Structure formats: C-alpha cells, structure tokens
Amino acid sequence: MKIDLTNLITESRNTASQHIDTLSTIDMLKVINDEDKKVALAVEQTLPEISQVVDVITEAFKKGGRLIYTGAGTSGRLGILDASECPPTYGSKPEQVVGLIAGGHTAILRAVENAEDNRELGEGDLKDLNFNGKDVLVGIAASGRTPYVLGAMAYAKSVNATVACISCNPNSLMTKAADISITPIVGAEVVTGSSRMKAGTAQKLVLNMLTTGAMIRSGKVFGNLMVDVEATNAKLVERQKKIVIEATDCSREEAESALAACNGHCKTAIVMVLAQLNAEEAKQLLDNNKGFIRAAIAAGK
C-alpha cells in the first residue's frame, strides 16, 4: 500500500526547530514550549465544531446511547485515557464512554504492527461492542487517514450513527467521512512527524472538552463542582465532603451527616442540605428532575 505523507501538515518540517539538536537544553525546551503555546489557539478555532459534538453526545446520553472513541497509537491511547477517567470523575457507567485502539489491549502499552492499517478491524471492534444508531463515534487520528479509524467510521455511518472526527490536517479522508469534523491545525511538529506532541496535545484538549461538556450538560456538575463523584478511596471520600460544603456552605459535621444518611451520594446530600429535606425526599426530587440539582431544588420550593 503506497502512502503519500508529503502533503500532510503534521508530517512537514518545522523551520523553528531545524537546529534543535545544536541548542542548549534550556533553549531546546524553549523551542518546544513556544510551539506548544500555539496548540490552544488552534483548538480555539474549532470551538463551534466541538460545541456541535458536545450537544450530539448529550442527546445520545439522554437516549441511552454511548460515546465511542476509536484511534490507533497515541490517538487511541488518548481516547482510552479520556474514557477511563469518566467513571471516577462523574460517576458514569464504564460502558457509557469507551475507547478503542487498533490492536486491542496490548496496543495500550506496546505498538501492534499493522493493526492501524486494517479497516476491517475497525469495523469488527465496533461490532463487538454492539455499536448502533443511538451511539456516537469519534474517530481520532492526527493524520486524518488511518484505515482502522476510517473502517470504524464507515461502519458507524452504515448504522445511521452520528460520526465525528478529530484530526490535525485539513481536507483529510476522515474529514470527508465525518458528519462533524474537528480539525485544529497545529502545524509542523518540533520533531518531524512526532504527532504525539502538538497534535496529541490538541487531541487531548478536545477530548477533555467533549466529555466535560457532555457531563455538565447531563447534570453531573453543579456550579463548577463535580457532584456525581463516587467515593472509591480515602481521597474521594474527603473530596465529597469538601464538595458538599462548597455547594451548600454548611459545616463539615452537616456534610458528613448528610452523606452518611444517603449512602455517600453527593448530589442527594447537597439537595438535602439546600432544600432541608431527608435523604428519601431529596433522592425523589433528583429522580424527578433527571439528576439536575438546580431543577430539583426549584421543584422542592
């Protein structure tokens, strides 16, 4: 299979770092840092598209759909990282956001040769998840041409699911295949072709926005507090108490009492304190208002 990388911005040579191997360590790092500063500005240009995808994911969640990431190499690992952080941060079910990587579990730690070149593997991995039209697929690849991802995108389209992509080259095959294309143009890498650097950073920023935005829109954030956090270790037990105190301005004793009464369900504890209700009443209000604290409190007045 002949691959032409000559027209890919992510594979071009960066004039700012052409002599980076001759610089002192501090000057070398300054070059890297100066290039990294461009990433957030590139992502800023794609906010309208990111917003569209957040809204699509939110609607999918409301209907019981899932967010599935698919990628190879660094891109696949970033999707897995973002997906794996959702349950401990937002108390979401592990199957609600899933990351797939070409080559499977082995590829998370070690490259699996040729897996990214297999379109059928991308389709097969989605079939193994029983991917369907209620779900949302986000393909991730800096180049915008990875066959594994394109195979998954084509299958997702065939079952009438919404398909988005994140890449760093304009007018790519993935861009043309997606319903919504997020394309932060970060330019040439400091080390030519090392797209785990600026392109990877851009992908991580976008992924952060997608899940954080969808979780906020799903009622899992009150103010800027992650109120659906599950206390699965000592640090998170303490964090829950702090969140209840911050959200309600109550005492530590009141927070501990409320959390104990509702079996450590942070949202319920907050509604209990703010609306002066018992645990059962607060839980019922939350259930009636789809887990949104503000709506639950307003309904309880």
Automatic annotation (TrEMBL):
UniProt KW keywords: Carbohydrate metabolism, Lyase
Protein EC: 4.2.1.126
Pathway this chain belongs to: Cell wall biogenesis; peptidoglycan recycling; Amino-sugar metabolism; N-acetylmuramate degradation; Amino-sugar metabolism; 1,6-anhydro-N-acetylmuramate degradation
Pfam family, one: GKRP_SIS_N
GO biological process assignments: 1,6-anhydro-N-acetyl-beta-muramic acid catabolic process; amino sugar catabolic process; N-acetylmuramic acid catabolic process; peptidoglycan turnover
PROSITE patterns xref list: GCKR (PS01272), SIS (PS51464)
Catalysed reactions, as listed in the record: N-acetyl-D-muramate 6-phosphate + H2O = N-acetyl-D-glucosamine 6-phosphate + (R)-lactate
SUPFAM superfamilies hit by this protein: SIS domain
Molecular-function annotations in GO: carbohydrate derivative binding; carbon-oxygen lyase activity; ether hydrolase activity
Active site: 85, 116
InterPro entries (UniProt xref): Etherase_MurQ, Glucokinase_regulatory_CS, MURQ/GCKR, SIS_dom, SIS_dom_sf
Subunit description: Homodimer.
Job description of the protein: Specifically catalyzes the cleavage of the D-lactyl ether substituent of MurNAc 6-phosphate, producing GlcNAc 6-phosphate and D-lactate. Together with AnmK, is also required for the utilization of anhydro-N-acetylmuramic acid (anhMurNAc) either imported from the medium or derived from its own cell wall murein, and thus plays a role in cell wall recycling.
Note from the entry: A lyase-type mechanism (elimination/hydration) is suggested for the cleavage of the lactyl ether bond of MurNAc 6-phosphate, with the formation of an alpha,beta-unsaturated aldehyde intermediate with (E)-stereochemistry, followed by the syn addition of water to give product.
NCBIfam families the record matches: N-acetylmuramic acid 6-phosphate etherase, PRK05441.1, PRK12570.1
Name of this chain's protein: N-acetylmuramic acid 6-phosphate etherase
